[in-house]
Amino acid sequence: MPHLEVTAWDLAILIGYVVVTRVAFGWFFARQTRGEGAEGFFLAGHRMRWPIIGLSFYVANMGGSSFVGLPGAGYHSGVSVFHYEWMPAVLMILFAVFFLPVFLRTRVYTAPQYLEERFGRGSRLAFSAMLLLTSMLVDAPGSLYAGAMVLKTLLPGVSIWITITVAAVAAGVYISFGGLGAVVANDALQAVLILAGGIAISVLAWQAVPSWDAVVEAAPPGALNLMQPASDSVMPWPGIGGVFIVGMYFWCTNQFIIQRALGAQTLDDGRWGALFAGLLKLPNLFILILPGVFATVLYPDLDNPDLVFPMLAFDLLPIGLRGFMLAVLAAAMLSSLEAILHSASTLFTMDFVQSARPDMDTQQLARWGRGATLVFMVFAVLWTPQISHFPTLWQYLQSILSYLTPPVVAVFLLGLFWRRANGAGALAGLLVGIPLGIVGWVVIELLGVVELQYLYAAMVMFVLGLALVVVASLLTPAPAASKIEGHMWRREDAATKPGQPWYQDYRLQSAALIATTLAVVVWWW
What we know:
The protein is mainly alpha-helical. The chain has one domain (8-388): Up-down Bundle (Sodium/glucose cotransporter). The chain has helices at 8-32, 37-43, 50-61, 64-77, 83-105, 111-119, 121-154, 160-208, 212-218, 240-253, 255-262, 267-281, 284-298, 308-316, 321-356, 362-383, 393-404, 406-417, 423-431, 433-446, 454-474, 481-484, 506-523. Helix 1 crosses helix 8, helix 4 (64-77) packs across helix 7 and helix 19 (423-431) runs antiparallel to helix 21. It is globular. It starts with 7 loop residues before the first helix and ends with a helix. Residues 33-46 and 177-181 have low confidence and may be disordered.
């Protein structure tokens, strides 16, 4: 096993990148949004154009947990983890067609705000509290922990507390000054770094292996096939339904992902950006997952699969480029963390502070948002080391989301498409479904009382959520037509601008994205 050594040049490149980008972008957007108040801080003044939105969507999901976890999953179980990467292409189409037009038409700051306008304040607060909880217990700590573990391996003399604290402070202070504009501007740069770094590692790893036959021989049985048996413990093929459900929560309703689309300059910008993000997810098979499979030839006895990325980077790259890859890892970790902290501050400020004190002006709300960012930063730092008590980071992240999020998806879908859904139904879905999910996660995943793969559990929880909303809605009075008017999807929401060139038609773009996705999936079936 090669010795991983970080030189002074590597560290200089890493530190220089983080400092320069944070100071430059943070200063610029702090000046640009000065005096704009809440809309400037939380939605970047609705100035986001589609390329920036697409790159930011992509990077927000490519935190340390994904950038480290995907090669590790490829090493451990093969390409089946790609189901989590091609599914966003489908989900981004659904978001662009059904969710985004309603969100932008109602001019909401947050996804929970939509639930209030559709179902009432109780639903908004319940969902917002759940998002805050998952942001602080799952998303932010997961991003911090993944990056910290890799850096701890490369820099064994540096305490994990120092790594976590420095990353959180860099992200928290940066967001406090620059807001959403600063987040997405850095995301655009970091997307280029991630793609370039991934391509470099993939090419070098392929050149290092003797042949494709050697990869086939070294990889676990069936590792080069997407579809796995229904009994598979990691990615059973029927579990694709669970990936779809959890993915719909993540890509269509999760505040820290969709917030950049809520700041779109136009509906078309939001749609094109979402479809661009879906397209960007497809190459992850080649630049992140397959290098993990190649590593089964290069490092057959690796104890911890999550070390595949640093192993490849520091074994295959020369000095200087290794520092560049460290910067890529830092970019991935900080981008995701910044998006999470900023969305959490938006949720807290707009869904709780503004509700409690509606007389506040936008400048005061922006100050509350900046303060909340710093508080959440501290909480994430304190909680992150607790993840070490769980078997794996991947299990911690995916399993808990599979139990908590399906009732949320049920509420949003019925809210958008079923006129009879009312506030009582939404509350039943959220206040009963989510606690039942927590109980199920503890009983099944932690205590092992019942054996059930968590993707199957996601499908069970989704059906339960649908039943709760439907039954409670039918047992209580129907909502007033005026209450739901404008908050449901309408056929005209799918229309395009008259006279728009064919290549700008999001429907044709969606069809092309589906065809491309299908081709990749069939190829690796």
